[in-house]
Amino acid sequence: MRILSISNTPHDPDQGSGYVITGYVEGLRERGHQVDAYGREDWCWTELRRGRRYVYPLMLAYFGLQHWQPQTYDLIELWGGTSWFLAVYLRWRDVDAPIVHHSNGIEQHREQVQRESASRAIQSARWFQWNLSRLHDWGLHAVYAIVTVGSYDVPFLTERQYVAEERLFAIDNPLPDLFLERDVQYERPKRIGFCGDWSRRKAPPVLVLDVAEFLRAHPDWVFSIVGVGDIDVAQQFPDDVRGQVEVIPFLDRRELVDWYHRLAIFVLPSIYESFGLVMAEAMACGAALVATGVGFAYELEHEEEALILSEPQSPRLCEALDTLAEDDALRRRIARNGYERVQDLRWDDAVDQLEQIYTSLAEDHSESTASTI
Fold first, then answer.
1. Which SS3 state, helix, strand or coil, does residue 311 take?
2. Which of 64, 191, 249, 368 could bridge to 86 as Cys pair (CB 3.0-4.6 Å)?
3. pLDDT tens digits, one per residue of 106-118
């Protein structure tokens, strides 16, 4: 099978979406498929500080049209909302290959969740930014099928009826091999962890307020924050608990594994996640998860595989932390069940699923096209 793949993010295997995209590209190539894959480093000829939401779709579309030729590919894979304009144009051109939107996050769903959030601290977009949901809608209506990186976005996509339900698929993101089948001990230091960017989508006001309240009541606990770069996050915490807050700007993947193993609890009270791979990573290393029911946590059983917060809002996070700190048997049970839950997140299985989906879509599209001639 010949596949043209264009993504909205760089093909950096050490970073979020880049890790997922390059993993699928390599997996399909290993199975003998020709995959011409391009990331932002290929189509973005200049980095913009402003206006990226408006200009980048045009850049990506221009690049895509230079690389697509009739009867060259069996399937066209587009990653991310930035590809909306290219999808619309290719549909208008009536290309001879199925167009698949492989989602690393549904922008319209994120916008809706943020608008409906009870937390006023979490804003959708700045006042001067246009809501591009309608344009992204056009992009999804233009494609033949949608593949998501987890089941959280599926009800939203089903309700919107972008594609026929039988052409809507979900494949959970796989974990790197070094996270699987690890020797895990559940006797842990009194440490809470958070990993990721310190963006509004992660509800930092809730993290600061609730974790500070917890640390104040539990002076023998530590809050460790990883992956925030050069942001001075510790200064956002009150003076009386700042000594219990540890900030590590960056860890490579192997260092991150060791860090997870030193956590009793991992927290991610996000307003929206397409998947949230850090949750699965923490669970694979034996940390008990406290998270809102978004992304991967949408699939987890409350009080068995995680403590699920109904909203990223105070004092729910503090209450959940209190519960686990005071009930070690519950923490251990959640950590153990969580560890077992993620052992099936394997690359071979995920690539097998994607290969079967793409093969079927290419065959179905070819048959339907032939029947109309």
1. coil
2. 64
3. 999 998 998 887 6
Regions of the chain with pLDDT less than 70:
118-130, 369-373
Give pLDDT tens digits for 286-314: 999 999 999 999 999 999 999 999 999 99
Instruction: Assign 3-class secondary structure to 77-114.
Output: EEECHHHHHHHHHHHHCCCCCCEEEECCCCHHHHHHHH
Tally of structural domains, the chain: 2
Domain holding 287: CATH number? 3.40.50.2000
Considering the domain architecture, whether residues 187 and 283 belong to the same structural domain is answered as yes
- 220 by Cβ neighbours in 10 Å (0-12 / 13-18 / 19+) ranks as exposed
In the numeric block, which tokens belong to residue 232? 């001075």
For residue 238, whether the previous peptide bond is cis, meaning omega lies within 30 degrees of 0, is no
Residues 202 and 278 reside in one and the same domain:
yes
The reply to whether 363 and 266 lie within a common domain is no
Domain that holds residue 72: 2-174+346-371
